[in-house]
Amino acid sequence: MDDRSGDTPPSVVTQLLVDWSRGDPGSLHKLMPLVYDELHRLADRSMRRERGSHTLQPTAVVNEAFLRLVDQRVEWKSRAQFFAVAAQAMRRILVDHARGHDAAKRGGRATRVLLDESLGATQPRDVDFIALDDALDRLGALDETQARVVELRFFGGLTIEETAAAMELSPATVKRDWSSAKAWLFRELSGAPR
Questions:
Q1: DSSP state of 127
Q2: Which residues contact 8 (CB under 8 A, 6 or more apart)?
Q3: Whose C-alpha in 84, 102, 147, 151 is 20 to 30 A from the C-alpha of 140?
C-alpha cells in the first residue's frame, strides 16, 4: 500500500500506532492525518462497487471506521495490521448499511457491488453486496485464512505482501489462498455447479 499522504515512511506510522497502543493520546492526533487519505481511498474504492443511488459517502465510511478503530483495544504492531483492521471495520459498515437499506425497503432491491477480475470474473458483473458478505462468512467457516485474505485484498486493498505481513504468512501462502478463495467465491456467487 503506497503512502498517499506524502513521504512518511511506514515505520513512522507503525511507531505512532505502537505509541497509541501504549496510551499516548498525542500519537492518535499525529496518526490521523497520516492514514486518513489512505482510508478514504479504500472507502472510495469500495463505494465505487456500490449501486449508483447509494446514500453513504466515503468520508462517512472513513469517519465511522476510524471511530470504531479508536474504540477498540488493539495492541497495534504495524501499519499493515492497522489497515487490515480498518478493512474489516469498513466491511462491517458497508454490510450494516446495505442490510439497513434492504430492511427499510422491506425486501427491496439488494445493494449491489461489482464483482470484477479481482474475484475471478472475466467480465465485470453486479453482485449482491449482502450475498458477497454471506459467501465470505461461509468461506470463513471452511477456511478462515482464505476469507481473511479476501477481506484484506478486496475490502482493504492490501497487496499480497501487505496481506502476508498483516497475517504473518508468507507471500506464497497468501497468493495460493487468494487464488483458491477467488475461485470458490466466483463459483458460489455465480451459482455454478461445484
A1: E
A2: 34
A3: 102
